Amino acid sequence: MIEFIQQQKHRNETLFYFGLICLGLSVMFILLTKYTSTQIYNVNAWYKPFKFAFSTLLFAWSMAWYCSYLPNFNSHVFNWTVVILLGFEIFYIAFQASKGQLSHYNISTPVYSALYSLMALAATAVTLYTAYIGILFFKSDFPELPIHYVWAIRLSILIFVVFSFEGFAMGSRLNHSVGALNDNSNWFILGWSKTVGDLRVSHFIGMHALQVLPILSYYVLKNTKLTIGLSVVYGLLALLTFIQAIQGRPLFQSKNETIIQDQN
Q: Is residue 253 part of a domain?
C-alpha cells in the first residue's frame, strides 16, 4: 500500500494531493451523517457529498495513474480541469447539503438553476476530456505494458464515458427514479431504490469500470481475450441495468415489497 501511495504521488503530484483532499472530505462527510439529522428525500443530506467526494478520489487517482503512460501528454491542463471543475461540484453539493437543499435537479430559483447547469457543464467537460484521453490510448502503442492491461484501460475509459453521459437521462428528467420522485431506499450508502427503477445503478456500474476492469485484468485475468470478454459482459451489465431502470423495475426488490406489489 505504501508503495502504491508513493507511486501515485510520483506519477501525478497534483491529482495525488487533490485525491487526498477528496479522501479527507469523504471522511468528514460520512462522519456528519452520524451527527446530523438533516434529510433530503428521506436520506441523510451528507451521503450525497460523501459519494461524490469518494468517487472523485477514485476518478482522479485512476486517471492520474493511466495518463502517466501516455507519451507527451500535457497532464497540467487535465489536472487543473479536474481540480477546478470537480472541486466546484463537491463544494456546491456540500454547501447545499449543509442547508438541507437539493443540488441536483434544483431549478427552484434562477440562481439554483444556473448552478445546476454549471454542474452539468463541468461534468460534461471532464467527461469529454476523458474521452479524448481514451482516443489517445486507442491511437498509441505501449510496448512496455502488457497488452491485456492496455485493452482494459481503453475499454474501461470507453464504458466510463458512455455511462457518464447516461447521467443526462437523470438530469433531463430532474429525477433519478422511474416510477416515483427521486426514491431512495435504506440500501447502505448507495440508497438505490428497492421499489422502482433507479437510473443511478447503471451510472455507477459504468463509471466504475475505470477501476474494476484494469485491476481485474492486471492482477487476475492476465489475458487479452478474457479482458475483452469481461469488458463486453461488464458493459452489457451496465446497459441491462439501464434498460431495467427505464422499465421502472428496481435492481433488487425486498421480499416484503414483492408481496405488497403482488397483493396490489
A: yes
Cell of 62: 485512476
Distance, CA of 108 to CA of 234 (rounded, Å)? 38
CA dihedral sign of residues 6, 211, 173, 38? negative
Per the structure, the count of domains in the chain is 1
Other C-beta atoms lying within 10 Å of the C-beta of residue 61: 23
List, for residues 206-242, the tens digit of each pLDDT value: 999 999 999 999 999 999 999 999 999 999 999 999 9
Q: Is 175 within the bounds of a domain?
A: yes
Q: Give the mean pLDDT of the chain.
A: 93
Residue type at 219 in one-letter notation: Y
Beta bridge partners of 39: 44
Q: To which H or E segment does residue 175 belong?
A: none
- Among the listed residues 168, 136, 147, 160, the one whose alpha carbon sits nearest the alpha carbon of residue 234: 160
Rounded Cα distance, 211 and 50, in Å: 18
DSSP 184-240: ---STTT---SSSEETHHHHHHHHTHHHHHHHHIIIII--HHHHHHHHHHHHHHHHH
Which residues form the domain of 235?
A: 141-264
Q: Is residue 197 part of a domain?
A: yes
From residue 207, alpha-carbon distances to 146, 223, 233 in Å are 23, 23, 15
Helix (H) or strand (E) holding 146: none
CB-based contacts of 201, cutoff 8 Å, min separation 6: 192, 241, 242, 244, 245, 251
User: Is residue 131 situated within a structural domain?
Assistant: no
Using only C-alpha atoms, the chain has a radius of gyration, in whole angstroms, of 19
Is 93 buried (19+), middle (13-18) or exposed (0-12) by CB count in 10 A?
Answer: buried
